[in-house]
Amino acid sequence: MNERKRTMIFGGAALVLLLLALVTAPGRVTPEAFLDQGEQFFPEFTDPNEATSLEVIDFDDETGEALPFKVVFKEGKYAIPSHNDYPADGKDRLAKTAAGVIDIKKDDFRTDNVTDHEFCGVIDPLDDAATSLTGRGKRVTIKAENDKILADFIIGNEIEGRDKFRFVRVPGQKRVYAVRMDIDISTKFSDWIESDLLKVNKNDIQQVVLKDYSINERSGRVDQRDNVILDKVDTDWQANKMSANQEVDNTKMNNLLSAIDELSIVGVRPKPPGLSQSLSRADAGGIAMSQGDMLSLQSRGYYFTRDGQLLSNEGEIQTRTTDGVTYTLRFGEVVYGSGADVSAGSESERDDQAGPGENRYLFITTEFDSTEFEKPAKPINSDFLSKADSLWTNTDRRNKELQDDYEEWAKKIEKGMSLSVDLNARFAGWYYVISSESFGKINLKRKDLVKAKEEES
What we know:
Blueprint: H1 3-24, E1 53-60, E2 65-74, E3 77-80, E4 86-87, H2 91-103, E5 108-111, H3 117-120, E6 138-143, E7 149-158, E8 165-169, E9 176-180, H4 189-192, E10 205-215, E11 222-233, E12 236-239, E13 246-248, H5 250-261, E14 267-270, H6 275-283, H7 291-299, E15 302-304, E16 310-312, E17 316-321, E18 325-335, H8 340-343, E19 359-368, H9 394-427, E20 430-435, H10 436-442, H11 446-449, E21 450-452
Antiparallel strand pairs: 1-2, 1-6, 2-3, 3-4, 5-9, 6-7, 7-8, 8-9, 10-11, 10-17, 11-12, 13-21, 14-20, 15-16, 17-18, 18-19, 19-20
C-alpha cells in the first residue's frame, strides 16, 4: 500500500469519527461546560419521604396535547386528582421513585445549544412557545409540603449505545446531560392503585351464584334466564339442577375462581354525592334517591325494581367466602373509548359511543351473614376465671371449653363484619370499569361450567 493511499484511509476514518462525535454529542462543547459533570442534579433533595406529590407531564405527538398524571398526599391519604381523587396506594412507589431521583447525577455533559433540544427530546411538553411537536420529553416534578419543589427535570430520548442512559434537562436551563436512569416513573393508573380489588382468596370461596338475567331498559321487564348455584363440597363443586349424568367441570370452575381472585380494574367513575348513603337506606328498606342519582345509575346499566332491588342489565355474580362475606358483582353498560376516556372518563360521559367498546361497568357491594357461623352456647358461669387451673371442677372445665368456643365464634363475627364494612366503604363511592376480557372470564353461564360426566374406564 503506497503512502498516498494510506493517508486517504486514515483521513476517511478521522472524518467518520468526527461525524460520530457530532451525532452523539450535539452542539459545541467548551471546557467550562464540564465543570459540574458528576454532580447530583438536586443536591438539597436528600430524604425521599419528604415527597408528597409527583407530577408527570407526557406529550402526545399525534394530538399535540400534554398528558398530565399526578399523585398527591391530601387529607391523610394519597390520591390521583386526574381520576377524581381515587385512592392511590402510592406512598411506597412515590418514595421509591423519589429515592431514584435523588441518586441521578450529571454523568456527562452533552450540549448547551437550544437547537439541539429537539434532537435530544428534551423540549418542555408545557412549552407553548416551542413550535415543534416532536422532540418533547417527559417532565417530572416532585414536591414536598407547601408546594416546595424538590426536583424538576425533563427526560428525553434514550442514548444509543449506552444502556439505561437518557438525555436530561432542567426546565429553564439550556444544558443537556447524559444521565443513567433506572427509575420506574409510571403514569399508568393501574400501577398506582390497589391491585387486589376484592381482597378475596380463591381458596376461601365456598359458594358462587351466577344470576343470569337481563333488563329491558324501555319496559323495565326482567328476563330471568337462570340462577346457577355452585357449592364447594370438600374439594369438588356441585351445581343446582344437575342431572345424574352431569358434573361441574372443576378445571373451568378453578379458572372462574382465579378470575374472581385476580380481578383488576382499568378505570373508575365517581358516584354522585349521596348515592352511597341512599343505597344504604335502600338496603334497609327505605329508598330515598334524587332523580340525578337514578339517572346516574341508569346511564351505567343499573336499575331499581319496584320492591327496591338493585339489578343490572347484564346480570350479576355473588361469591361467598369462609369469612361469611358475600360479594355481589353487578355488570352494567359497555364503556366506549380508550386511554384516559376509559380510566378516568370525560367531564361528561359521551353518548356517541365513540371508540372501541372493550370495557364494562362494574358495581360492587358486600354483605355479611352471621348465620354462616352457628352460635355456640355460652358458659353457665365464669367462676373458673377466679380459680387456679388445679382447682377447676369438671363444670369449670366445661365452662372454659364453652367460653373458648364462644370467643372463637365472636372473633369470626367481628372479623366478617369488619371486613364487609371496610370493603363497602372502599367500594361505596365508585363505579368500576373492567376489561371485556375480565367480563368474559367471570360472566359465565351454566353451559360453561356444567358438563356430562366422563365415562369411567
